[in-house]
Input
Amino acid sequence: MKRIQFFEFHDLAWFPQSWRDLMTDLMGLFDAIFNPYKPVIPKIVEAAQKLNCRNIIDLCSGGSATLLRIQQSLESKGMAAVDIILTDKFPNLTAFQKAAAASRGKLKYLETPVDAAELPAQLNGFRTMFTSFHHFRPDSARKIIEDAVRKNDAVGIFEYTERSLVWIIALLLSPLLLWMAVPFLKPFKWGRLLWLLIPLPALCGVWDGMVSCLRTYSPPELKELVSGIKAEDYCWEIGRVRSFGGCFITYLLGYPARKDEGAGS
Output
């Protein structure tokens, strides 16, 4: 099946921020329950060590649960000095604040929108993206990687969604997860209980989940993206690793072959 570029509701500027936050909160709950990126966290920590990384700039951070685990893994490896900064075009500030508090202030965040394809000059370091790269069309996706290359930054892209029957079946059942999970999302909000009676957010979530799978780049498509980028001194690593159940993580790592100073220095 070829990649299909449909729209997702929570990409749209007019989509209600409260509904968008609900979706990112649910993704955070999913991460907390299944920890899908556990198999690649050692790879990320290894890359950060190799690059003498000082900053990790997470793009399109959403609920940000994965970054908390990465921060804890870095700390266990004696890399507590690495700063991790959460960013998003539509920041879920409640989720960011919760992650920052859980990390005892070691996770930082920006309240202002950040364009993943053109980072401000002061944001430099190892760029990461989790379950978000599929939102971008090939031309925009290539610009995200090109911006990292142009500024001599490492980049890591990770997706647990993919075009598979397993995910399609799981997403058809996802409204049950919404109805079961809403009362337990923290911080608790009474208004969310109304969504248990109104199916529209659940239907938007099913649509967005389906489209996320259809949009996700396969390893050959990622190779095609980077093949058109002038980066002779960059090392690229693209592949898949098994995650929970029958799911896999597709990943891309790119970093300068030689770097005299630490990433984000």
